[in-house]
Amino acid sequence: MSLRIFVSSTSGSMKIKEQQAYIKRILDGLGLAYEEIDISDPKNAEAKAEMQEAAKTHSKSVVPPHLLRDNNYIGDGQDFYDAVEDDNIEVFLQVPGAKEKKIEPLEKGGSDENDTEKVPQD
């Protein structure tokens, strides 16, 4: 299963540069193999068109970064960031054997003396 990240080495946007660096840093930290495709390189025109079509199909901006797994659109930079924050990045990236982590809601209404700060009474 091949993971591809579409980036632009000529972007003037600091936000795009930061998202691209963030994605690569996380992928490298996880030890996941990926192919980086620079859509600003004319030799990647066909791959750029594929990325743009995939992004449009999912109502996303065509501005990189975008991720595809085996020619299936995964998401953009914000989707990637959200998956990291939700601690479900491996599920998002469709890593074989990855399991979604459930976040348990906080219980309401229970009273625990350790949960509340006691204010001295005069």
TrEMBL record:
InterPro entries named among the record's database cross-references: Glut_rich_SH3-bd, SH3BGR, Thioredoxin-like_sf
GO cellular component terms, semicolon-separated: cytoplasm
Domain of life: Eukaryota
Pfam families noted in UniProt: SH3BGR
Region annotated Disordered, chain positions: 100-122
Family: Belongs to the SH3BGR family.
PANTHER family (alphabetical): SH3 DOMAIN-BINDING GLUTAMIC ACID-RICH-LIKE PROTEIN (PTHR12232), THIOREDOXIN DOMAIN-CONTAINING PROTEIN (PTHR12232:SF0)
The protein, known as: Glutaredoxin domain-containing protein
